[in-house]
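Consider this pair:
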Amino acid sequence: MLGETLFDRSSIPLLVKSLDASMLRSRTIANNIANVNTPGYQRVEVSFEDELRKALDQGKLRGMQTNSRHLPLGKMDISALSPKVQKPADPTLPSGVNNVDIDMEMAKLAENQIIYDFSAKFLKGKYNKLNAAIQAKDVQP
C-alpha cells in the first residue's frame, strides 16, 4: 500500500517510461545511422510522446473496464503505455540510396540525448527526495 502510494501514484513510472522510450529511440537512430548507405533501407522511428500526451490529457474522461474483453474507453492508462517502433510513410530519398538523412538523424540523436539527460536528472531528484524523507534529512539541491 505504501509502496503503491510512493511510486505508482507519483511521476516516477512516467519518468521510467520516458527513459525507456529514449533508450529505444537511441537504438533506432543508431540503426538508421548505421544503414545510411544501405540501398533500399527504410528508416524507423519511435513514437511515444503523442500517446503520452493523450494519456495525460485532463479533458478526456476515462472509462472503467469491468471485464477484460471490454474495449478501453477514453484516455489510456499510463501503465499501459509503451514506445512503438514504426516505419514512417516517407518515400523521399535524400541520399539517393534510401530515406535516411544523416543530418536529420544526428539532430534527432542530440535532441533525444537532451530528453534522456533531463529525465534521468529529474528521476534522480525524485529518489533523492525520497531518500532524504526516509532518513529524516533536508533535501540537498
